[in-house]
Amino acid sequence: MHAERPLYFRAMTRRFLRSLAVLLLALVSSPAVRARVDSARVVAVHDGDTITVRVGDRSEKVRLVGIDAPELNDERADYQQVAVEARDAARTLLKGKTVTLETDPRQGDRDKYQRLLRYVILGDGTNANEWLVRHGFARVYNRFEFVEKGRFKEDEAEAKREKLGIWVLPPGPARVTPKE
């Protein structure tokens, strides 16, 4: 017969098992585990933060999570010009490419316009959303929380320091568009 284990040993075992359970729960609920991914082909780029993709047999409009590009219909000519540059950069980066669409667990599936909310990942692993911020074609969309916000803010700060894209514009609101 083996001797009863000491009380301190049993307490340590319980603490270890509790810690292991917490760790497993954290792993299962982490963004990387919960993110849903779809493969899609980019068929249109509307502006710096909205694209249309083909997923299987259906077309979907996609709003790139966490970024806000200038509006093509901005009333200020210099902002309009940067909006065209942002759209053109997104076209060069994405149009015709097969990409991975990845959800963000802090975002809903769709926005109020029924566009999918997704990170758009290129075949080489580049996050297109982040790339557009890093190169000054979009700013971080601070209105909503999203998993990659900290990283995007670092990229935005770098683009500001280098005065890229939107960061050469005079100070003012992010958009001034006609009332609809």
Question: Briefly, what is this?
Answer:
The protein is an alpha+beta fold and 180 residues long.
Provide a descriptive summary of the structure in words:
The chain is built from 5 helices and 7 strands; from the N terminus they run H-H-E-E-E-E-H-E-E-H-E-H. It is an alpha+beta fold and 180 residues long. The strands form 2 sheets. The chain has a 5-stranded mixed β-barrel. The model has no long low-confidence stretch (mean pLDDT 88).
Question: How are the SSEs ordered, and which strands pair?
Answer:
Layout: H1 7-28, H2 31-34, E1 37-47, E2 50-55, E3 58-64, E4 67-68, H3 77-94, E5 98-102, E6 116-121, H4 128-134, E7 139-140, H5 149-161
Parallel strand pairs: 3-6
Antiparallel strand pairs: 1-2, 1-5, 2-3, 4-7, 5-6
Helix pairs in contact: 4-5
- Morphology call: elongated
Order of helices and strands, N to C? HHEEEEHEEHEH
Task: Quickly count the helices.
Answer: 5
Structure class: alpha+beta
What keywords describe this structure?
180 residues; alpha+beta; two-stranded antiparallel sheet; 5 helices; 36% helix
